[in-house]
Write a structure and sequence with these properties.
By secondary structure, this protein is an alpha/beta fold. It contains 8 helices and 6 strands; from the N terminus they run αβββαβαβαααβαα. Helix 1 crosses helix 4, helix 4 runs antiparallel to helix 5 and helix 5 crosses helix 7. The chain is globular, with a radius of gyration of 21 Å. It starts with a helix and ends with a helix. The mean pLDDT is 79.
């Protein structure tokens, strides 16, 4: 039987996780289960307009242990979150992910917190971050989140810097470029 302080700790962890998910994906509807850190029963179930995704909270930062969980749970395409930042991710642990595409989103609450903070900074972050809990797959760490967001912003800025005339000129010149390219090959 769990003591009152253990129940409060679990409730606090679930509440904070829920907050981050809702900030990243406001259209989500989240419900708690009566379980915590269980092997097969999720801690939460997230619903987006009839699409459901299980969320498993893990207390270990050991990425190899998390990959083992992902292999067991991958059929459900869940979100597996650690409450701490991952331990060192080494070249030894990455082949597990590279060997087989993983349908789970594997991340940690610190990465979600970072996304939540970004969402408050600029509206453009919301465009990038909102779909992550719903559609994200694979290992999603803070450095990857930062790179993904920056790549999107760089692309949006590049597209914004072009005006319609430049795009039309590029499009009109494309057939000649292709012909010149074929002649040089």
């Amino acid at each position: 039987m769990m003591h009152n302080d253990e129940n409060e700790t679990i409730q606090s962890i679930k509440d904070k996780t829920r907050y981050y998910i809702e900030q990243c994906s406001p259209e989500s509807n989240i419900r708690y289960t009566d379980y915590f850190n269980h092997t097969f029963i999720p801690d939460m179930v997230i619903n987006w307009n009839k699409q459901e995704r299980y969320l498993y909270i893990r207390t270990t930062p050991d990425i190899n242990w998390i990959f083992e969980d992902a292999k067991l749970l991958d059929i459900f395409h869940p979100i597996i979150l650690t409450i701490e930042d991952f331990n060192e991710i080494t070249d030894k642990s990455i082949p597990e992910l590279q060997g087989k595409p993983i349908s789970s989103l594997i991340s940690n609450t610190m990465t979600l917190r970072m996304l939540t903070e970004q969402n408050r900074e600029q509206a453009i972050y919301k465009i990038v971050n909102h779909p992550i809990p719903q559609y994200g797959r694979g290992l999603f760490t803070k450095p990857l989140a930062t790179k993904t967001t920056q790549d999107f912003i760089d692309g949006a800025n590049a597209a914004e810097s072009l005006d319609g005339n430049q795009v039309a000129l590029i499009a009109n010149d494309a057939p000649r470029y292709v012909q010149r390219r074929k002649k040089s090959d």
